[in-house]
Write a structure and sequence with these properties.
The structure is a single chain. The protein has 269 residues and is of the alpha+beta class. It has two domains: 122 residues, 2-Layer Sandwich (Beta Polymerase, domain 2), CATH 3.30.460.10; 114 residues. Strands 3-2-1-4 form a four-stranded mixed beta sheet. Helix 6 packs antiparallel against helix 8. It is globular, with a radius of gyration of 19 Å. The relative contact order is 0.12.
């Protein structure tokens, strides 16, 4: 019996990462992360920690990939918690040239387990995050399937974000600013395009190139635009003019199509 990429034989998501997949160049980064989290977040504050992104998937490239971390705190994050996370980010970023930036996402346990976040943050922790320390919140969450509900709650808010993204593009005056924004916008559009068709495809991938190709099977008229976005997501500096083209062309079409197919993501407080 065959089953789709990223799914088990019952059609539910497999957790995509593993600590066993962390490659040798990134092992000391993860070890130092553990130590620094212990220095800055005590057990009264930190419930559990997780890796996500290319490092636990085993696809990270030294000098190119970043380190993505999620910390589930026992209470909602405070300014002190954010300052502590920034200190850890700065320390790791300075110490390890093999990572191209460090990002630590802070969330509260109650938020992860809430009904409102069941098909967004909850799914993210249960399916795309790899446990690093502490009790795994994934065991307290349901099994997930690639449904229209999941598509809606993960990426059904692009239409709300477009005015802000256009404002950021207009305000970006330096090459570095536009490069960062191009990367972020391109990644978001590729992931949104993939989740638009995810329920029909019936599987999961975090690979941007594959995501664009899967999208193109269902929307061939927009396939090349999505491939261009996937290329810019990897090497944004090579496509300096693409940001405005994406925000004026692919993005508004995608936002409208998403609403028509899956509906709008429920607003958050």
């Amino acid at each position: 019996m065959t089953h789709r990429t990223g799914m088990d034989r019952d059609g539910c998501f497999l957790r995509e990462g593993s600590l066993n997949r962390v490659s040798a160049p990134f092992a000391p980064v993860v070890a130092e992360l553990r130590a620094r989290l212990g220095d800055h977040f005590g057990p009264a504050v930190l419930h559990s920690s997780y890796l996500y992104g290319s490092i636990p998937r085993g696809t990270a490239v030294p000098g190119v990939s970043d380190l993505d971390v999620l910390l589930a705190l026992r209470e909602n994050p405070t300014e002190a918690d954010r300052a502590a996370a920034q200190a850890v980010e700065d320390r790791l970023d300075a110490a390890f040239p093999q990572v191209n930036g460090v990002g630590i996402l802070l969330v509260g346990v109650d938020g992860v387990l809430s009904e409102a976040e069941r098909y967004d943050l909850g799914w993210f922790v249960a399916c795309l995050c790899t446990p690093l320390s502490g009790p795994d919140l994934g065991v307290r969450l349901p099994r997930y399937r690639p449904t229209s509900l999941l598509a809606r709650e993960t990426n059904g808010d692009l239409f709300r974000s477009l005015p802000g993204l256009r404002a950021k593009a207009a305000a970006a005056t330096t090459e570095a600013e536009r490069t960062r924004l191009t990367r972020g916008v391109a990644r978001r559009l590729v992931r949104t395009g993939f989740t638009l068709v995810m329920p029909r495809w019936g599987g999961w991938t975090s690979d941007l190139t594959e995501s664009a190709e899967v999208f193109g099977r269902y929307y061939p008229a927009h396939a090349e635009q999505m491939r261009a976005a996937a290329r810019a997501a990897r090497t944004p500096a090579a496509y300096p003019e693409l940001l405005d083209a994406l925000l004026s062309g692919l993005a508004p079409w995608l936002a409208d199509e998403y609403l028509a197919v899956h509906g709008a993501k429920a607003p958050r407080p």
